[in-house]
Design brief:
The chain has helices at residues 2-28, 32-54, 57-73, 84-104, 135-140, 142-153, 157-168, 173-180, 184-201. The protein is mainly alpha-helical.
């Protein structure tokens, strides 16, 4: 049974993508209900991503609302070269970074801006072994939630967003690279640095008793 379900997974994904495109075309034709379906389909995921970037529920909710509003306004700019969800996540990340700008008083930048790039991003990435428990497992554990959130806040936006997409939302390396308009090497580099930084900050919680 598991094998059959695994074989059907690509077809289910293709069906979902086709549904997205059909809803996009319907929205362009004036069907507001079609866009409402897209909102219901992605609202929870986008809110989770935005909150993991901003660490503020009110800011995250506003970022998602503004992202949907801009997506609706600019729907004619969606060319279909990438998945609709990828395009929508990019808009949400940009809105989330805008909220961070207001929180921190930094210059307005977007997910495409060099300010979110690591200064030595051209170096080859190095592998960081998986930890036990994994960072995403820690995130779901209530006793470590606040600790990890505070550590995530200290990550640079470039590293944080890669960690959120890859290790919390569990997008593949290729999907993360597509969302952020990066190559896979850059994603691996930032992910390795994010994991290493978090591991260093959380190391005392991994130490075994003497």
């Amino acid at each position: 049974m598991a094998t059959v379900m695994a074989d059907l997974a690509p077809f289910a994904m293709t069906q979902a993508l086709d549904d997205d495109l059909a809803l996009v075309h319907a929205t362009r034709g004036g069907d507001v209900a079609a866009f409402e379906q897209l909102v219901r389909r992605y609202d929870s995921k986008l809110l989770r991503i935005a909150q993991n970037v901003t660490h503020n529920l009110e800011d995250a909710e506003e970022a998602v609302q503004e992202a949907f509003f801009k997506a609706y306004q600019k729907l004619d700019q969606f060319q279909g070269h990438a998945k609709f969800s990828t395009w929508l996540i990019r808009i949400t990340l940009n809105e989330s970074f805008m909220k961070l700008r207001k929180q921190r008083g930094i210059m307005e930048q977007s997910v495409d801006s060099d300010v979110y790039a690591d200064s030595d991003s051209e170096r080859l990435p190095f592998d960081v072994a998986d930890w036990a428990p994994s960072p995403e497992a820690l995130y779901r554990a209530s006793e470590f939630r606040e600790i990890l959130i505070n550590s995530l806040k200290r990550l640079s936006p470039a590293r944080k967003v890669v960690f959120v997409l890859r290790d919390i939302e569990e997008y593949s390396l290729n999907e993360t690279a597509e969302i952020l308009n990066l190559n896979v090497t850059a994603v691996k580099t930032r992910l390795s640095r994010a994991r290493l930084q978090l591991r260093e900050e959380l190391s005392k919680y991994f130490k075994k008793p003497e």
